[in-house]
Known about the structure:
The complex is a heterodimer of chains A (213) and B (423).
Chain A: H1 2-6, H2 14-39, H3 45-50, E1 54-57, E2 66-71, E3 74-80, H4 83-88, H5 92-95, E4 123-127, E5 138-140, E6 155-157, E7 164-165, E8 186-190, E9 193-196
Antiparallel strand pairs in A: 1-9, 2-3, 3-4, 5-6, 6-7, 8-9
Chain B: H1 13-21, H2 24-34, E1 36-38, H3 47-66, H4 76-85, H5 90-117, H6 126-148, H7 153-164, H8 173-181, H9 188-219, E2 235-237, H10 238-263, H11 294-302, H12 311-327, H13 329-332, H14 344-365, E3 371-372, E4 375-376, H15 377-402, H16 412-422
Amino acid sequence: MADAISGHGDGETRRDFIVLAGAAMGVVAAGAAAWPLIDSMNPAADTLAAGSPIDIDLGKIAPGQQIVVMWRGKPIFVVHRTDAILASLQKPALLEKLRDPESAVNQQPPYAKNANRSANPQFAVLVGICTHLGCIPKYLPEPSADSPAPDWQGGYFCPCHGSKYDLAGRVFKGVPAPYNLPVPPYTFPTPTTLRVGENPAGATFDLASVEQL
Amino acid sequence: MAAPAAPVSAQHPLVRWIDHRLPVFSFMQKELHDYPTPKNLSYWWNFGSLAGITLVIMIASGVMLAMNYVANADMAFESVERITREVDYGWLLRYVHMNGASMFFIVVYIHMFRGLYYGSYKAPRELLWMLGVVILLLMMATAFMGYVLPWGQMSYWGATVITNLFSAIPWIGSKIVTWLWGGFSVGNPTLNRFFSLHYLLPFVIVGVVGLHLIALHQHGSNNPLGIDKKGPQDAIPFHPYYTIKDSFGLAVFLIPYAIIVFFYPTGVFAEADNFIPANPLSTPAEIVPEWYFLPFYAILRSTPDILFIPAKLAGVILMFGSIAVQFVLPWLDTSPVRSARFRPVYKWLFWILLADMIMLGWVGHNRPDRIVAGFQITTFGWIGTLWYFFHFLILMPLVGKFERPLPLPTSISQAVLAAKEAK
């Protein structure tokens, strides 16, 4: 009988066990009850649906033109690049001024990790948010001797703190922005349609995985 | 000394009937009337009651604003303009509330620096101080979310920058940010939850203020001499002495508050960019938080890479750490003497710390790439950050051990009478 009351004999009783087990179940129950409250703050189903991929008709973008579309509340730059722009991206004089000309930092999907930072060289697709403090860089493709900066070769210029990127969204050295502009997941379901938010078949890339948005 | 008020037991039978069942009258008698308070409190002790009154002003004006405010990303900005232009006295409510936030922080910062100078955080008032730090954190969260509600440019971009801080957390950072936003960027779900929490938190603050007051009344106020009351000769009843002094302080406080509300409602504390509706496609030239966050913003932006911790994460850690260190201040300060009046070394450190905080505020106000005297301004921010932590983590424990304090008066009463004799 004494054994049944004192349990294991070394001061632990059956009651200790029941109290501990009960408390543990209580903690689990409290967690289970709290979870719906916490999870309700995550994006709702319609918000997620509104973040689904969007299609853009590329036929309407003139050569050299940039359009800005919104995807998941972020500005997405789509540029129809000319041959002249593409040629300018390979100039050694430009490359040596860039912080990360090879796109080594994870700021783009694998299919855009190339000399043009693009799955299709003709079109640049970039998230238009400066990697410094989140401002929106200006598209200034025309070279200029003095505006917005001396010896401007054409590219993106951030009006907030003067960060500079080339026309592939690669950041220059000596500016506050640390990384290249991010590239979102995208694919071309038809030759004239761009779909932002979806990877090409076989690729998996999540924009949230980049070094910095 | 005023004649003691009649005890509850001698009052109207209805008062006695209620008090027997719900002792509100004897409670008020004890805590608001008789409550023995050091007789030597200076005007620096007015700021606790001022903070309490400002909290009431903020809640009252906020509740009325909420009746006309629309927490929807498409309508929020216009609803605030409507409050200003169409609602009877809406302009008054808005400007009292908007500028009240800044007045609240002025009062609370003075209240805290008074506590730092006179050692009000020391035994037996450690929990009193810690509850105060909790109130400060709640105030900061409330003020930040309130600033988002008008949905102007600075609301939107301030919310973007500050919520993005959490993306610096390794592994789960971006998931936390998405959870905070309730979407893929700051948007309507964010605005809705901020409104909900902005309405909730002030009442949480009221609760913690209640605990703060219970802790205060347990041992009573500290005083400029920092020595304990030794008997009734060192104290005077709260009413009428401090009720009248607090009322006078309130009147003085309301003068600049009213001047701002009526003559410069948007000219002193407001940011011009916040009178432009939020636009996710256009960033303001400069994103600056409200002045009361500037020293902490400077810590955030000035912190460089530390060992293997990237600058962004290190900045977030140090920014939150700068508040967290306040929780352990009562144990970091090893000096048995409370008041800086009798601490010749600490007295200087206090003023240096105040100057350091002002410098950090100046750094936070400027663009991080500004060059001052040949240095990038963040260099000054980093020096200020290091000094802040050096002050609390290194100097406070050491100075308490090596400083030779001046002799303390034998009692409050003796010091007060001696001061009177000297005149």
